[in-house]
């Protein structure tokens, strides 16, 4: 418990005036530091407070402060990763911080290759209804990550996706829609699967539009951004920024692309630039069934990368005019092929 007594001190200024700041109770400072921790825009916001004085250093490490730290407080750069950073994340985990459980779980599972501890930390966050942790565990179950192909558990993956979708996770909703549509790990229900896919697209558009408007401070009568780089072209013709990458995924991507993380020969990273997950065994991820040049850990990554870049790079666009006659001769096959390429659902399993 935090001591509720006022700190007695004889500190005075040069003019002999008593410093009233020292009389503030610890409870009040812990509350203020907790607010700062929850709204920190980077780890330095909290670290700079710790360096202010011994009292702040002590109170900033209080469990009530660490338990409220938001995801931005764990946006750690690769060059700053060290044993003390690892200990700080462990302190946050011990304080019950759900974001720390998820972030450290991802780092342990994929970067440190400590599969058991990483999965345990993600499960700890999932138990507390953390959508990203639930979806990440679903990806692990669908791919059998960290084990062999026989370690896949499709039913568990569907159950985890269902829980994450109920909590509003759009990629989990899309994954669940594909599972129902294809009968993958669950009884096939094509109409319900299609409905979930449409709902996921609608939620994605609404979510990205709202977040981009807040981020760019756009007015209602200005629907598009002036800079189209790294943007998504929505179904309604709006150029909207891609969703912000979670600090855990950013860390994974930087860890492996910087060369600090080692990937065994033949293994690949997910082609979605905002994911960062590596394969844990050969041919673990799905690959594009048309060009075969890209691979994805999940349907969510595949759908996002399709909109960001692969839609303009995939081979079908160069082949459509050549295959027009074939499409007219076989209407059913043509419809399926166009729908497959148009929606970006051109991925097959290993």
From TrEMBL:
Keywords: Metal-binding, Zinc, Zinc-finger. SUPFAM superfamilies: F-box domain (SSF81383), HCP-like (SSF81901), HIT/MYND zinc finger-like (SSF144232). It comes from the Eukaryota. Gene3D superfamilies: 6.10.140.2220, Tetratricopeptide repeat domain. Pfam families: F-box-like, TPR_27, zf-MYND. Coiled coil: none annotated. One of its GO terms (molecular function) is zinc ion binding. The keyword Zinc-finger applies. InterPro entries: At2g35280_TPR_dom, At5g50450/At1g67340-like, F-box-like_dom_sf, F-box_dom, TPR-like_helical_dom_sf, Znf_MYND. Transmembrane segments: none annotated. The keyword Zinc-finger applies. Residues 272-314 form the MYND-type domain. This is F-box protein At5g50450-like. It comes from Cucurbita maxima (Pumpkin). The gene is LOC111490141.
């Amino acid at each position: 418990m935090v001591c509720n007594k006022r700190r007695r001190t004889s500190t005075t200024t040069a003019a002999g005036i008593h410093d009233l700041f020292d009389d503030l109770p610890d409870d009040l400072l812990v509350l203020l530091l907790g607010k700062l921790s929850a709204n920190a825009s980077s780890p330095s916001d909290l670290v700079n407070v710790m360096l202010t004085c011994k009292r702040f250093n002590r109170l900033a490490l209080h469990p009530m402060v660490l338990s409220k730290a938001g995801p931005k407080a764990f946006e750690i750069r690769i060059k700053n990763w060290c044993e003390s950073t690892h200990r700080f994340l462990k302190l946050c985990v011990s304080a019950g911080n759900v974001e720390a459980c998820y972030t450290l779980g991802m780092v342990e599972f994929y970067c440190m290759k400590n599969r058991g501890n990483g999965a345990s930390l993600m499960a700890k966050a999932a138990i507390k209804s953390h959508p990203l942790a639930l979806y990440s565990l679903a990806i692990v179950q669908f791919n059998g990550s960290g084990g062999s192909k026989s370690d896949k558990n499709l039913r568990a993956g569907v159950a985890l996706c269902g829980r994450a979708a109920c909590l509003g996770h759009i990629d989990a909703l899309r994954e669940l829609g594909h599972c129902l549509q294809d009968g993958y790990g669950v009884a096939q229900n094509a109409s319900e699967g299609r409905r979930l896919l449409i709902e996921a697209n609608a939620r994605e558009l609404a979510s990205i539009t709202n977040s981009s408007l807040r981020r760019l401070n756009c007015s209602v009568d200005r629907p598009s951004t002036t800079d189209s780089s790294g943007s998504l072209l929505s179904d309604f013709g709006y150029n909207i920024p891609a969703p912000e990458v979670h600090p855990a995924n950013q860390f994974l991507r930087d860890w492996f692309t910087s060369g600090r993380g080692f990937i065994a020969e033949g293994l690949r990273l997910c082609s979605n630039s905002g994911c960062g997950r590596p394969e844990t065994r050969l041919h673990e991820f799905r690959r594009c069934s048309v060009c075969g040049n890209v691979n994805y850990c999940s349907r969510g990554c595949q759908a996002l990368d399709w909109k960001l870049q692969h839609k303009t790079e995939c081979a079908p666009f160069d082949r459509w005019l050549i295959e027009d006659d074939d499409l007219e001769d076989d209407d059913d096959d043509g419809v399926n092929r166009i729908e497959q390429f148009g929606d970006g659902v051109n991925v097959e399993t290993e």
